[in-house]
Fold Thiol:disulfide interchange protein.
Amino acid sequence: MRNLILSAALVTASLFGMTAQAAEPLEAGKQYVELSNAVPVAVPGKIEVVELFWYGCPHCYAFEPTINPWADKLPADVNFVRIPAMFGGIWNVHGQLFITLEAMGVEHKVHKAVFEAIHSGKKLATPEEMAEFLAGEGVDKDKFLSTFNSFAVKGKVEDAKKKAQAYQISGVPTMVVNGKYRFDLGTAGGPEGALSVADQLIAKERAAK
């Protein structure tokens, strides 16, 4: 928890003017960390960019208007993946919510609405509360509840937890490029800086092929 608080403090600082850091030459140990053990990517042959997030994180919510247009314009050789960070409690509940929506194929339709609901005061802390809210967004309530409690979703929850551990994250939002390079808004110099670091690391991986 202490690491999470420190990470949040770094992110807060980055949001108020650390963007100059992004202009500096990219350097391991400075803007990003190179993982000692690379984590396998979801789609072999593509350069993977992972964003680890939590629906309840204000910095993740603030990052949405910046990262979404960027992700939408990524070239065909780049695979963008969101993974919910699960540090216990409500983090796990919201992580399972995200994975359920992905499994149902509706995450892209309601992701923004879920974020906005939580940051406008809705807790969405139980499957029933989630199902009731999502019904208003056009998601079948019964199908959501059965999928939420399914064996397949629970397996994907465990996979997401293992991935986050392998990335050695201590806070969110955190990004990982190709299972090798980890960075956050604090180290990268804010939202725009993070995307600049991501672009440079994508180019590095593309050149290495």
